[in-house]
Amino acid sequence: MGLHGKLIAAIEFKAGGDVFHEILGQNPNKFSEASPDKIHGCDLIEGAFGKVGSIICWNYTHDGKQKRAKEVIQAIDEEKKLIQFKILEGDLLELYKSFIITSHVETKGDDIDLVTWTFEYEMLNEDVEHPISLLSYIIDLTKEMETHHLVKP
Hints:
Largest sheet: 7 strands, antiparallel
Structural class: alpha+beta
Mean pLDDT: 94
């Protein structure tokens, strides 16, 4: 059995893909404004937001439990509106040997932006489940950010 996995979800984002990419890269603390029940904080540990090699620590609640993830920004492609994070420490590494999260914004036509999330991971053993509930959580978080941005005065 393979212990490697990849999950992908694409969500339409009506508030503008450029906006989403900029928030995730340059001002991720806005996620706690949009979704305070899910994201409790995003602290810069080393470097600068939006810079490859920078280390960020997220405090969040998932499946009713407070969790944390320390990650490094592995790649940024401004033209493709792509940001890739590798988990360095935290709850996810209790189940996965490695975990990489990529966000990519794609424009379809004149007025449709898709935020695509990709999880690439290696499970510690065959008993570990694929992170489907985490992907659902990220989808909900993306939708909450969209709503927050659309209703902003």
